[in-house]
UniProtKB/TrEMBL annotation:
Taxon lineage: Bacteria, Bacillati, Bacillota, Clostridia, Eubacteriales
This protein's name: Fe-S cluster assembly ATPase SufC
Species: Clostridium tertium
Cited PANTHER family: ABC TRANSPORTER I FAMILY MEMBER 6, CHLOROPLASTIC
Transmembrane segments: none
Superkingdom classification of source: Bacteria
InterPro entries: AAA+_ATPase, ABC_transporter-like_ATP-bd, ABC_transporter-like_CS, FeS-cluster_ATPase_SufC, P-loop_NTPase
C-alpha cells in the first residue's frame, strides 16, 4: 500500500472569479511534517480552505487525491470522515455548545459509531493536561470568551481527540506568545506519528524552533517556488521573501 497521503497536481483555485492558486504541486507522505511559508496574499489560507472544500473557494483545475482517491467532488464533511482536519486561523465562537459536547459529536460523526464515554473522558482530560488547559474549559461554550491562545490550544485539542490522518494547521501559531507556541508545538508532536501527516501553514518561523519539519515550502503568488528543510525557514527569517518573489515573477 502506498505511503502517499495527499497528492496535489496543478491545483488552481479561484475566489470570486480571481485566480489565487496558479498551478500548485505538493505531495505529503505518511509520517511527514510539512510547513508552507509565504508572504500575506500568497495563497496559504486559500490552499487550506480548498483542501477542505470551503464553498467560497472554487477548484477550477488540477487534481487532489487523498490516499489515492480523487476527492475533488467530496464535500467538507465527507473529507473530514476520510481523515482530513483543518485548524482554523480564526476559530468561530459557538454559544450554547460546550467544548466537550462539540468534540464528542464531531468524533461520533467522523468515526460513524458511538464512543465509549469513560475512555473519551479520560482521553479528553489527559490531552487537556498536556496542553495546560484546566478541566473547566471542557464545560465552557466553544471559543466563547477564549483568548487567542486558548482558541488555538482548543484547535489542537480537537486534532488530538479526532485523530485525523492529515492535520492542516492554518496559522496555528499566529498571535501566540513563546509559551503558547511551545505548548502548541508539543501538541503537534503528540499527534504526529508514522501513520499520519501534518501540514503547517504559517508566515512565522517561531514554531519551527520547537518542532522538526521534514520539508519547508515557500509559496509565492499561488505557486510553491522552493522546497527545502528547516534551514530554508532560517533563510526566510534572515532575508525575507523578496528573492522568492523575484523568482516567482520570472
Amino acid at each position: 500500500m502506498s505511503d502517499v497521503l495527499l497528492n496535489i497536481n496543478g491545483l488552481k483555485t479561484a475566489v470570486e472569479g480571481k485566480e489565487i492558486l496558479k498551478g500548485l504541486d505538493l505531495k505529503i507522505n505518511k509520517g511527514e511534517i510539512h510547513v508552507i511559508m509565504g508572504p500575506n496574499g500568497a495563497g496559504k489560507s486559500t490552499l487550506a480552505n480548498t483542501l477542505m472544500a470551503h464553498p467560497k473557494y472554487n477548484q477550477v483545475e488540477g487534481e487532489v487525491t487523498f490516499e489515492g482517491e480523487d476527492i475533488t467532488e467530496l464535500k467538507t464533511d465527507e473529507r473530514a470522515r476520510k481523515g482530513l482536519f483543518l485548524s482554523f486561523q480564526h476559530p468561530e465562537e459557538v454559544p450554547g455548545i460546550t467544548v466537550e459536547n462539540f468534540i464528542r459529536s464531531a468524533k461520533i460523526a467522523k468515526d460513524g459509531q458511538l464512543i465509549k464515554f469513560l475512555k473519551f473522558d479520560k482521553d479528553l482530560k489527559n490531552n487537556m493536561k498536556e496542553l495546560k488547559m484546566d478541566n473547566e474549559y471542557a464545560k465552557r461554550y466553544l471559543n466563547v470568551g477564549f483568548s487567542g491562545g486558548e482558541k488555538k490550544k482548543n484547535e489542537i485539542l480537537q486534532m488530538l481527540m479526532l485523530s485525523p490522518k492529515l492535520a492542516i494547521l492554518d496559522e496555528t501559531d499566529s498571535g501566540l506568545d513563546v509559551d503558547a507556541i511551545r505548548i502548541v508545538s508539543q501538541g503537534i508532536k503528540m499527534f504526529a506519528n508514522e501513520e499520519n501527516g501534518v501540514l503547517i501553514i504559517t508566515h512565522n518561523t517561531k514554531i519551527l524552533e520547537n518542532l522538526k519539519a521534514d520539508y519547508v515550502h515557500v509559496l509565492v503568488n499561488g505557486k510553491i517556488v522552493k522546497t527545502g528543510d528547516a534551514t530554508l525557514a532560517k533563510e526566510i527569517e534572515q532575508n525575507g521573501y523578496e528573492a522568492f518573489k523575484a523568482e516567482a515573477a520570472m
